[in-house]
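Project channel, design review

CF: Before we commit to the Odoribacter splanchnicus constructs, I'd like one complete example in the thread so the newer folks can see what an input/output pair looks like. Taking RNA polymerase sigma-70 factor.
RD: sounds good, go ahead.
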Amino acid sequence: MKEEQIILKGLQQGSEQAYKDLFTAYFSDLVLYANHFIKNQAAAEDIVQDFFITLWFEKKFSNIENGLESYLYRSLHNTCLNHLRNEQRKQEKLLHMTIEKDSSPTLTTELEDKEREYNQLYQALHKLPEQCKQVFTLCCLQDMKYQEAADYLGISINTVRTQMGRAYKILRNSLDSKSFLNLLFLRFLK
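CF: and here is what came back for RNA polymerase sigma-70 factor:
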């Protein structure tokens, strides 16, 4: 309990060492806790890492009243529930996109078209320059806002905007018009 208070006081004072101590003390236990909800070890680790990054950048340590540990577990619980909700929405969107009608003879053809579009998009994404690909992945596939992606990557928001414009231009030239419009539709549907 005393160590928890020392870490919390250090966090409230902006100490990077306190943040490192917090990470070291709680990371493994929080991953186990997140895995209890997510049922995917790798995803649980990613969620906890993102949780710590958000915790550091938002610096909401002064709001902690009922103890650091209970705050961490309660916040991570909410983060996991949000993740599960988002995953469910994504699955529903994919299901809705692939099954527009009841079983019809054209469903197989439609699924093959979707798979072809996916492969085309996947190949186009891997041809993007590295920073461009990182920014596009964070903003479009992980639903980060431009400012969040800029903070996460340690770059300016203008660089994020430039890289997103560059990504869209490259993808527009690499994809057929239907695939590119579907990509835009998915981006702005979120």
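RD: helpful, thanks. The mean pLDDT is 81.
CF: The longest helix spans residues 68-98.
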